[in-house]
Amino acid sequence: MELGLGSYAFRWNIGIKDQQPAQPMTAFDLLDQVAKRGLKVMQYADNLPLDRLSAADHDRLAAEAAGRGIALELGTQCFDADEVSRYLQIGQRLDAKILRVALDAEDAEMPVHVLAEQLRPLLDRAQDAGIRIAIENHFNYPSPRMVTLLDTLNHPALGVCLDVANSICAGEWPEETVRMLAPYAINLHLKDYVITPDPYGVGFRIHGVPLGQGRAPIRWILDQLSHCPPDMSVILEHWLPMTDGLDDARAKEEPWLDQTVAAARTFIS
In sequence order, which residues have a C-beta less than 8 Å from that of residue 203 and are 6 or more positions away? Predict the structure, then answer.
């Protein structure tokens, strides 16, 4: 498996919603972070949308990545036909083989056969572009419904971006999610988490920790993916909480990532 970086590993340094640093990280800064750690893949997600860059920037990004031996992947949050078409064009400029797309609450409300008919022409375009669309199991799209969608489409350009923790929000433990979606996986998002009780006994909280320091059954997950090709990308992310302000969270992202990369190398080996 090829270890890579996901742009959500630098959620706070890139900026998200109302939390915006004075000097946000750029797509090129993230490429430096990948090279610095000897990783092989950079996956840009919707928190750093590449359709806001110019064609010249795309060409520069592709050239710098190729010069460093880094494969590029890209992602968006929407199955809007125009947006996916834009990203397929960008993917061709970047020589990307994976376009990650997340399904969420609105998609879950749509009948599977209707969603499938909307997706089929996009998948045909992806296949023509030499790109596979990896649907990520996101917070509010249950995995059984995802399996039904995948089986309904049964398209060679379609697979799963398997996130090991997202589906807790959909009422699934990671073991359930992995068992259902591992057969379709073409991309892996690897992160770790803990569950801590509220100090006043008012429920509990799920939050991230560096890889290998939490509850995610990492070795078991990788065993379930032993059928996947050896060059499948494993994208490292984390759920670093912002507890003491934006500057503190930004300062923690690199140390967390260093710990996660070290642990990932141990697990993968």
Answer: 197
What DSSP assignment string belongs to 62-130? Answer: HHHHHHTT-EEEEEES---HHHHHHHHHHHHHHT-SEEEEEE-HHHHTS-HHHHHHHHHHHHHHHHHHT
Q: How far apart are CA 262 and CA 38, in angstroms?
A: 11
* Residue position matching structure tokens 């990650």: 100
CB atoms inside a 10 Å sphere around CB 80: 12
190 three-class SS? strand
Specify the pLDDT at position 104: 67
Mean pLDDT computed over 239-252: 97
Question: Could you give phi then psi for residue 28, rounded to 5 degrees?
Answer: -75, -35
Say if residue 60 is exposed, middle or buried (CB neighbours under 10 Å; 0-12, 13-18, 19+): middle
**Mean pLDDT throughout 105-110?**
73
Helix or strand holding residue 262 (H, E) = helix 246-268
Q: Which two tokens stand for residue 104?
A: 């969420």
Radius of gyration of the chain measured on its C-alpha atoms:
18
Task: Report how far residue 31's alpha carbon sits from residue 72's, in angstroms, rounded to the nearest whole number.
Answer: 9
The pair phi, psi for residue 205, each rounded to 5°, is: -135, 135
CATH fold of 2-264, please?
TIM Barrel (3.20.20)
**DSSP state at residue 209:** E
End-to-end Cα spacing for the chain: 9
